[in-house]
Amino acid sequence: QPETWNGLYIPRYAAVLVMPWVVHRHRKLWDRPDAFMPERFHPENRERIDRFQYLPFGAGPRVCIGASFAMQEAIIALAILLSRFRFDVTSQTRPWPVQKLTTQPQGGLPMQISRRA
Ligand code: HEM
Q1: Which residue's alpha carbon is nearest to atom 6 within ligand 1?
Q2: Which residues pair with 111 in a beta bridge?
Q3: pTM here?
Q4: 116 CA distance to ligand 1 centroid (A)?
Q5: Could you tell which of 52, 57, 104 is best to mutate to test the pocket of ligand 1, judged by most ligand atoms within 8 Å of the CB?
Q6: How far does residue 65's CA lie from ligand 1's centre (Å)?
Q7: pLDDT 10s digits, 39-60
Q8: H/E/C letters for each residue in the chain?
Q9: CB 3.0–4.6 Å: which of 42, 70, 84, 109 could bond 105 by disulfide?
Q10: Phi first, then psi: what are they for 83, rounded to 5°?
């Protein structure tokens, strides 16, 4: 049925999407939203992030059931790869986000890979 939410008219059968890309960069939610600040996610800062402010795995009844596995897998893969190899951007590397089913770097992310001594 039609709905009005927050002053916005939503017609019958409208698809309503939550865009994590937008939520994760919202100026009302984040300090310096476009800055690369991994320390936002350090254990001592996690409490300041609301459950619905950061939702890479969704939320609610259809939340990703593989979230814990994915996080563990990513940490193991990154720890092994980064301890053995260096990944450097090249002059051709121009990261630009494109929205597919997931957000991806346009044309991939070509990098110079070298073995660590
Ligand atoms: C970084 C990796 C991953 C990301 C970012 C991710 C993200 C998501 C998101 C956003 C959803 C939708 C949540 C919603 O509808 O609200 C989802 C659902 C789901 N994910 Fe993942 N996921 C990841 C890895 C995995 C892995 C490794 C598995 C399985 C081993 C998995 C299994 C599922 C399943 C089965 C659903 C559907 C849950 C349902 O509809 O009840 N995901 N995931």
Answers
A1: 57
A2: 89
A3: 0.85
A4: 34
A5: 57
A6: 6
A7: 999 999 999 999 999 999 999 9
A8: CCEEECCEEECCCCCCCCCHHHHCCCCCCCCCCCCCCHHHHCHHHHCCCCCCCCCCCCCHHHCCCCHHHHHHHHHHHHHHHHHHEEEEECCCCCCCEEECCCEEECCCCCEEEEECC
A9: 109
A10: -80, -20
